Amino acid sequence: MSLAKRIIPCLDVRDGRVVKGVQFVDIKDAGDPVEVAKRYDLEGADEITFLDITASHEGRDTTAHMVESIAEQVFIPLTVGGGIRKAEDVRAMLNAGADKVAVNSAAIFNPDLINELSEKFGSQCIVIAIDAKQVSNNPPKWEIFTHGGRQTTGIDAVEWAVKMTEGECGAGEVLLTSMDCDGVKTGFDLALTKAVSDAVNVPVIASGGVGNLEHLSEGVLRGGADAVLAASIFHFGEYTVTEAKLAMQKNGIEVRL
Amino acid sequence: MQSIAIVDYGMGNVRSVQKALAHVAPNDKIFLTDDAALINQADRVVFPGQGAMGACMRAMNEHGLIDVIKKAAQEKPFLGICLGLQLLFDHSQENGGTDGLAIISGDVVKFQKSDLKIPHMGWNEVKQVSDHPLWHNIDDNARFYSVHSYYVKTQDNSIVTGTTDYGVNFTCAIEKDNIFAVQFHPEKSQHDGLQLLTNFVNWKVS
C-alpha cells in the first residue's frame, strides 16, 4: 500500500489573523497568515487546517478573505473549522478556496446537518470534528463535550463518530480531538483514537496532545490514525514539518517527502 | 493569449482549479462558465466535478451542457479532473446505477469493503504506464492528492496512462487523442500538480 499518512499543521485564526495562545489564554498575533501557510507548504505539510475562533460575523468575512489569499498561493488541501453552522457558511468558505470544512457543535444541535451538507457539497468536503473527554476507565468510555470541554452532552464519542460517518451522506473524515490531552503535550489519547478509528470506515485525524515527534508516530502506529494534526510543536518553531516526516519515516510509516 | 474554460455546473469546488490555472498561466484568459457558447469558443476545456455522479449528470442536463462537453472532448485539449474523469465513462455503480457521457468505454465501480478506509483520501503514488506530454517533468511514482470512493475500470488498456494502488491497482489517469483525465486533484497536489497543469496549458495535440 502506498497511501501516505498525512501531517496536518493547525492554525488558530481570529479576525483573519493567525494567533498563538495557550488554551485560548494569552493570545498573541502570530504574523501574516499567508506567510505562515506558505512556510508549512514549503516544509511539506500535506494539508493545512484553520480553526476559526472569531466571535463576530464581520471577523468571519475577514477569515474568508484570508483563506482566499492563501488559496491563491498554496496548492494543497485547506480545511476550515470553527463556527460552521449552515450551508451558507460552508459555501462561503468553499468559495474562498477552502477544500473541506469541519463541523463541530452545530452537528450536535442539529444531527441532520452533516447529511444535508454532504448531500449538497459532497461528503469529500465535510469533516465531522469531535471533541471528546474520557468519562470512565473500566470499560473506557468517552463523551462529546462542548464549550471548550466544559459541558458534556452525554453522547458517546465512538457511537457518535459512527453515526456521523455512516451511509451515503455521512461525513468523509473525522477530526478527533481529546479534550483531556489537548494542550498537555503528553501525546494523543491513543485508546480513544484506536476505538474511533476501528469503529468508522472513513479516515481519522488524531488531534490533541502532541508534544514531540514520537507522539505523531504513536498516533498512527498505536492509534490507527490516518493523519495526525498538531499546532504548537510547529508554531513555536520546536520542529519543522519536514523533521516530523523524517521521524515518522524512521518508524516505518509511509510519508510524502 | 489563449482561453481556458473551466466547466462550472454547480457541483463541487471549482474555484481551486481556477486559482491553480491562473497561477501557472497568468497571461491566459481563464474562466468558470456554464455557457455552451463560451465553452465552444475556448481554446482548451477543463472539466472538474465533485460529489455524486447522478447529481452531476442531472446538473449538466439542467445546464444544457451534455452536447457541448461531448463536442469539446472531440475537438480540443480537454482535461478531466476527479468526477470529470468518471463522467466520461459509460456507466457508474453510484446512486444505484447512473449512465455517464459514454465518451470512454468502461465502468465506474466502488472500492470493495476491506480494512482500507473509504474514501481513498490523501497523497498516493501515481505510476506512469505510458509516455505522455502531460507527464513532462513529473517523476514516475510522484504523489498526488486524491479523494474518492469510486474508480474507473476499462477494458481498453491502450488508454490507461496512470495507475495507483489502494487495495486494488486502479486506473487513475487516461488519455485518448485530445483527452487527458485524472482521478486525483492536480490543483491540490503542490509542485507536481502545478507541473501537470502547466503541461496541459502548453499541450499541443498532434
Which oligomerization state do the chains in this entry correspond to? Answer: heterodimer
Report on the biggest sheet of chain B: 9 strands, mixed
Number of distinct beta strands of chain B: 13
Tell me what portion of residues of chain B adopts beta-strand conformation: 25-35%
Beta fraction of chain A: 25-35%
Secondary structural class of chain B: alpha/beta
The largest interface is: A-B, 35 and 37 residues
> SSE order of chain B, as H and E?
EHEHEHHEHEEEEEEEEEH
Rg of chain B to the nearest angstrom? 16 Å
Q: Specify the helix fraction band of chain B.
A: 25-40%
Q: Strand order, biggest sheet of chain A?
A: 1-4-5-6-7-10-11-12
Please give the count of helices of chain A.
10
- Mean of residue pLDDT values of chain A: 91
Structural class of chain A: alpha/beta
The end-to-end distance of chain B, rounded to whole angstroms, is 20 Å
* Coarse morphology of chain B: globular
> How large is the count of helical segments of chain B?
6
List keywords for this structure.
heterodimer; A: 257 residues; alpha/beta; 12 strands; 36% helix; 27% strand; B: 206 residues; four-stranded mixed beta sheet; globular
